[in-house]
TrEMBL record:
One of its GO terms (cellular component) is outer membrane-bounded periplasmic space. Residues 79-336 form the Fe/B12 periplasmic-binding domain. Keywords: Signal, Transport. GO terms for biological process: iron coordination entity transport. SUPFAM superfamilies: Helical backbone' metal receptor. Belongs to the bacterial solute-binding protein 8 family. It comes from Gordonia sihwensis NBRC 108236. PANTHER family: IRON III DICITRATE-BINDING PERIPLASMIC PROTEIN (PTHR30532), IRON(III) DICITRATE-BINDING PERIPLASMIC PROTEIN (PTHR30532:SF25). It comes from the Bacteria. Residues 1-27 form the signal peptide. InterPro entries: ABC_transptr_periplasmic_BD, Bact_iron-sidero_bind. This is Putative ABC transporter substrate-binding protein.
Length: 338
């Protein structure tokens, strides 16, 4: 086994290599790596502080599922405006991204994991112009309790016409929210079928991978703490559907900050870590290379892996659920060795 100082140096080197994106010489002065014609060269980060990233460079163009048909006897919905980007996951999972004609939110509000189709939907802003709403011409407006002001702004344009307003709370049970969105766009049958398909596959993966005999810890690095996650987070819920076991200290819903007294509660057969924003990432890098972390069992055996914080914690929905399932499928029996 490497001496602690050697391991720390190796980790620092790995981090430096993995996180150095776009350093080098090109005909621009912004330190971004470019081709001779000026195009940015994309570099995929695969490793952070000796920890491999699960599914690095994932192709988000494949997140959304195939289109679905409306319920028998119900009209299709061709044009949808959404006031809360959190509701887009359900439309992505129903294969209805092409029907979204506007998002009443600032530019850049659509989660990256939903892929380029939804990222390219016109952002109408918090206070959309009447002309933009007329161009979007929604038949259905999907909104949430938290975005009531955006709905009021839409109504204030006088351009909604006969659009039907459907209110769904994305913070409620994710399956209930998915069904509510589906009902609002006349796809109740498709929603039930897609949820059944997901549950069947999750149970199959759990059986094939013998998930109940693997205890998996979830640790989320925030700017202020190392959070030992419970069962209430979205990623934890999907792991429960798969049948993955959790350490005894992590079988209550709430996340708790790690302290000196309970730091080893983060240990398990495998630890999935994630980072809330850039400051969470910096904190995570420091902890992952610390002696008290490296002295635990999973880090000793290179059984620590990084997952996408937005997908596992920052959102919920069937499209995200498939991403979490695929993360577990490719990594439950993996390590960060090598």
């Amino acid at each position: 086994m490497l001496a602690r100082s050697q391991r720390r140096c190796a980790g620092a080197l790995a981090t430096a290599v993995a996180l150095t994106v776009g350093l080098g010489a090109c005909a621009a002065d912004d330190d971004v790596l470019r081709t001779p014609d000026g195009s940015v060269i994309s570099t995929t980060v695969t490793r952070i502080a000796e920890v491999n990233i699960v599914n690095p460079g994932r192709d988000y163009a494949k997140t959304c599922l195939a289109p679905t048909a409306p319920d028998p006897g119900r009209a299709d919905v061709a044009r949808i405006v959404v006031t809360d980007p959190a509701l887009l996951d359900a439309l992505c999972a129903l294969g209805m991204g092409a029907q979204v004609t506007g998002v009443t939110a600032p530019a850049g509000s659509v989660p990256a994991y939903l892929g380029p189709q939804l990222a390219s939907v016109p952002a109408l802003g918090d206070a959309p112009a009447s002309a933009a709403v007329r161009t979007a011409a929604p038949q259905v407006v999907l909104t949430s309790p938290e975005t009531r002001q955006r709905l009021d702004a839409l109504r204030g344009t006088g351009a909604l016409g006969t659009a039907r307003i459907v209110t769904v709370d994305p913070a409620s049970d994710w399956q209930a929210a998915f069904r509510a969105v589906a009902a609002g766009v006349n796809r109740t049958g498709a929603a039930n079928a897609r949820l059944d398909e997901f549950t069947t596959e999750a149970h199959r993966v759990g059986r094939v991978m013998d998930a109940p005999h693997s205890e998996v810890s979830l640790v989320r690095f925030t700017p202020d703490a190392e959070m030992i996650e419970g069962t209430g987070s979205f990623g934890a819920q999907i792991m429960a559907t798969i049948g993955v076991a959790r350490p005894a200290a992590q079988r209550t819903p709430e996340a708790v900050p790690a302290t000196d007294a309970d730091f080893t509660d983060a240990d398990a057969d495998l630890i999935y870590v994630s980072y809330e924003g850039p400051e969470g990432l910096e904190r995570g890098k420091r902890v992952l290379l610390s002696d008290r972390w490296l002295d635990m069992g999973a880090p000793t055996w290179n059984r620590v892996l990084s997952v996408d914080d937005t997908v596992w914690y920052g959102t919920s929905g069937l499209a995200a659920a498939w991403l979490v399932l695929n993360d577990v499928k490719v990594s439950l029996n993996s390590s960060s060795a090598g």
